[in-house]
């Protein structure tokens, strides 16, 4: 009975995942799940967690609302995992208070800009096999990147071979604009589509005119073949 009452006295959300260690840092709860062979984010992280370390695991994806219940979270370390996919709403619910987000040393090639641009946190995105494109460029321009790691955001793949292996910041400083490239591609596609429709209209008009002319010619020939009024009178 005494044990039962003890459980009732434990604050809600203060339990600790069995694969993690929970400690106090200056009165703030730290949840340490480093190097625990985790393949996904634990579901039972305490709601009052302020520091969360999930580094050096085998996590491959950050699903939507993965941290939504962690309204007190300030620092999140997801470095040195195998993350390949990040959903658009992955960090929904923690955007306001999060100060640091470490996604370095993963397998991230691209990321929805909506997932990061709502954050005020300082981002670490280094050492990922990035595909340099417009979305990544917008993240670099608008997000708060850690200045110590921004040079390590390197183009693993890119629209042009000459950009591969170079820091994205260096490529952009050289005047490259991946977003304008995409816009030009879109404009060309629209031009081709409009030209195709215009060509179809022209062909239709030509066929219509030709068909009507043939009908007119047939009608004239028919009229010519009829006996004239003068012939009947004679």
TrEMBL record:
Annotated signal sequence range: 1-15
Keywords: Leucine-rich repeat, Membrane, Repeat, Signal, Transmembrane, Transmembrane helix
GO terms for cellular component: plasma membrane
Stored Pfam families: LRR_1, LRR_8, LRRNT
Membrane topology summary: Single-pass membrane protein
Ranges where the LRRNT domain occurs: 15-51
Record-stated family: Belongs to the LRRC3 family.
Name of the protein: Leucine-rich repeat-containing protein 3
Native organism: Probosciger aterrimus
């Amino acid at each position: 009975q005494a044990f039962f009452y003890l459980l009732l006295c434990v604050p809600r959300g203060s339990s600790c995942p069995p694969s993690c260690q929970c400690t106090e840092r200056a009165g703030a709860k730290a949840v340490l799940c480093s190097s625990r062979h985790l393949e996904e984010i634990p579901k039972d992280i305490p709601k009052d967690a302020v520091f969360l370390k999930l580094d050096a695991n085998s996590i491959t994806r950050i699903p939507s609302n993965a941290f939504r219940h962690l309204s007190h979270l300030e620092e999140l370390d997801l470095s040195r995992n195998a993350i390949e996919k990040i959903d658009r709403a992955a960090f929904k619910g923690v955007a306001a208070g999060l100060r640091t987000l470490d996604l370095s040393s993963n397998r991230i090639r691209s990321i929805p800009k909506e997932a990061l641009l709502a954050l005020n946190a300082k981002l670490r995105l280094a050492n990922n096999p990035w595909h340099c494109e417009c979305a990544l460029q917008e993240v670099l321009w608008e997000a708060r990147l850690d200045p110590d790691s921004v040079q390590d955001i390197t183009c693993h793949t890119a629209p042009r071979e000459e950009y591969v292996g170079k820091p994205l910041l260096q490529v952009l400083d050289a005047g490259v604009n991946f977003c304008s490239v995409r816009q030009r591609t879109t404009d060309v596609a629209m031009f081709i589509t409009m030209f195709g429709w215009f060509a179809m209209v022209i062909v239709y008009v030509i066929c219509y005119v030709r068909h009507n002319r043939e009908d007119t010619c047939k009608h004239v020939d028919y009229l010519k073949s009829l006996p004239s009024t003068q012939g009947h009178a004679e």
